[in-house]
TrEMBL record:
InterPro entries: NAD(P)-bd_dom_sf (IPR036291), Sc_DH/Rdtase_CS (IPR020904), SDR_fam (IPR002347). One of its GO terms (molecular function) is oxidoreductase activity. The lineage of its organism: Bacteria, Bacillati, Cyanobacteriota, Cyanophyceae, Synechococcales. It comes from the Bacteria. It comes from Synechocystis sp. (strain ATCC 27184 / PCC 6803 / Kazusa). It holds the Pfam family adh_short. This is Sll1308 protein. Transmembrane segments: none annotated. Belongs to the short-chain dehydrogenases/reductases (SDR) family. Keywords: Oxidoreductase.
């Protein structure tokens, strides 16, 4: 049976909490009854507006996914966390033949993949101590299909998706629900930079999908934006019958 998470009165940590999907996630968790949200950001002052709005329900905390020491320190501080949402990421615009492609991929891997691993290593013991909880990873549709103008970003997200699959198996033993979230183009600065702002949809769709999936215990989460919904419908059988099946 899938593990289901009731977010009422839970303590949540969201990386990249000061803008885009992360900001909407913070707001949505509180609106759905979370007791407290650690707003993880690279600059603490960037979360001040959330404190102004929500008071002591918001705790700004320093996390830079490219800095493992900041992640380890945050895990020592946020010892009451029950749901971790690793939303933050970086993106470069580069196709595989671009002169800077390898440098772009190295940059993206450091945050999008190595940062994910560091987050899991630091917070898995915290989640275990607090009853299991959930670890949610934002992976994007580009983790399933590469888009040539963001090919290196797509590759980093494909690697992150692979790591997330392994985390699902590893953390199941401690009762931690792991989720892989695959939104399409969402109205954020990152999407605008990639040239897809014309088809971008609301970040609220992502937040709603994550919260619903926490309550149902699903691993794959495809928000209700147009691209993610279409891709999720096509991928559903493979996801259920290959990705979510143990071959041990």
């Amino acid at each position: 049976m899938p593990m289901a998470i009731d977010i009422s009165n839970k303590t949540v940590l969201v990386t990249g909490a000061n803008r885009g999907i992360g900001k909407v996630l913070v707001e949505s968790f509180l609106e759905h009854g979370a007791a407290k949200v650690y707003a993880a950001v690279r600059k603490l002052e960037s979360a001040a507006f959330l404190v102004d709005k929500y008071g002591n329900k918001i705790v700004p905390i320093l996390i830079d996914l490219a800095d493992p020491e900041s992640i380890a320190a945050a895990a020592q501080t946020a010892t009451d966390v029950e749901i971790v949402v690793n939303n933050a990421g970086v993106q470069k615009v580069a196709n595989p033949l671009a002169e800077e492609a390898i440098a772009c991929l190295k940059f993206e891997m450091e945050t999008n993949v190595y940062g994910l691993i560091s987050m899991a290593q630091a917070f898995a013991p915290v989640l275990k101590a607090n009853g299991g909880g959930a670890f949610v990873q934002l992976n994007s549709v580009v983790s399933l299909k590469s888009f040539c103008n963001v090919a290196t970003y797509s590759a980093s997200k494909a690697a992150a998706y692979s790591i997330t699959q392994a985390l699902r198996e590893v953390l199941a033993g401690q009762g931690t629900l792991v989720q892989s979230v695959h939104p399409g183009p969402i109205a954020t600065e990152m999407t605008h930079a990639s040239g897809r702002a014309d088809i971008a949809e609301s970040p609220t769709l992502v937040a709603e999908a994550i919260i619903a999936a926490l309550q149902s215990g699903e691993f794959h989460v495809f928000p209700n934006d147009t691209m993610a919904k279409g891709m999720g419908d096509a991928y559903q059988s493979f996801g259920k019958n290959v990705i979510e099946v143990s071959f041990d």
